[in-house]
Design goal:
SAM-dependent_MTases_sf; binds S-adenosylmethionine; 7-stranded mixed β-sheet; Methyltransf_11; 3-stranded antiparallel β-sheet; 15 strands; S-adenosylmethionine-dependent methyltransferase activity; Methyltransferase type 11 domain-containing protein; Rossmann fold; alpha/beta
Amino acid sequence: MVIPSYKLAYLLIIYAVRGIIWQMSDKTSKPEAEPKNGLFTDPAGVPDAKDPKQAGDEKTADSYSQHSSFWAERMRSGGSFSHTHIEKPVMYEKMARLAPGSTVLCIGCGSGEECAEVAEMGTAKVVGTDISAGLIDEAKKGFPDIEFHVAAAEDHAKFAAESFDVIYSSLTMHYVKNWQPVFTDYLRLLKPGGTFLFSTNHPIRWGMDMVRNQGSRVTTMLLGYTAEPDTLQVRIYGDYLNHFTKHDRFMKKIQVTYYNRPFSKMWHDIKNAGFDIIDIVEPKSVEKDVPERFSGFSKITQKIPYFIIFELKKPLTSPTHEPVNPTNSPAQ
Ligand SMILES: C[S@@+](CC[C@H](N)C(=O)[O-])C[C@H]1O[C@@H](n2cnc3c(N)ncnc32)[C@H](O)[C@@H]1O
């Protein structure tokens, strides 16, 4: 079929105008990667992910230490909404069952408030560790009856085998680059049948990119993409599938480096370390007593997961399963 030249010219004009409109709208509404809060991902991914001796990030530890009195005061005056309404209710409900009569190691204990809370649940003993010397100082001052040590989560070699019934760790494991060797060591620390209970960043929420239209105060968190059918251009927001480093500023003050990893990687690392999975919780926020200023956040957390909680068990006998190898996964 031959297209008459006047029709061809007409079609070309239509496409040219559409192209100009697309470009204009792209310029005015295109969200920008948001470096404002210091949040950006490291395109190089996780460097040297095979070094199990890498014990924590010095700058993160220093930043927590620098703000340790602010942190302690904040925690002792009620903590953050994420703590009080999303994560701690589940963690403490589980600990109320696990704690009585137990020896508990609390890893990433911050300024010690959780150790004190857990100790009140009828434990035989609680030991708290954290990478930040400043936070451990606050913990010792605040709770002199509890034993505290400065130690990276990756380096608990000095604790004797089978010395704990429960390892409790709240919102700290995302700071640990390589879970498997670290979790294998936690298995050594636990008595047979012992529990490793931990909460960590949820890879859906923390895999999102923060974007903001130029000049707007509205923050948009995205994990998704746009695709333009004519030009085949795609724009991707966030990254769920890869194991990568994030640099961020926490509570507008504390400079932190942590790691995002997909659920499949979490599962492989847990299984390969030798733990059995007893429970997984993706907590929604508790809708009771929500302060007015957190009403929006509370609604978000009814639908978007911020944290994930794992209750793991050390088998009574040595694990016999074959290692689970990720297939088709870049998340090594
Ligand atoms: C979000 S705070 C949680 C503190 C406490 N568990 C709570 O929920 O209140 C994270 C804690 O992890 C500690 N941390 C960061 N990297 C760590 C590492 N590699 N080893 C041990 N602790 C670490 C920080 O010093 C900080 O106390």
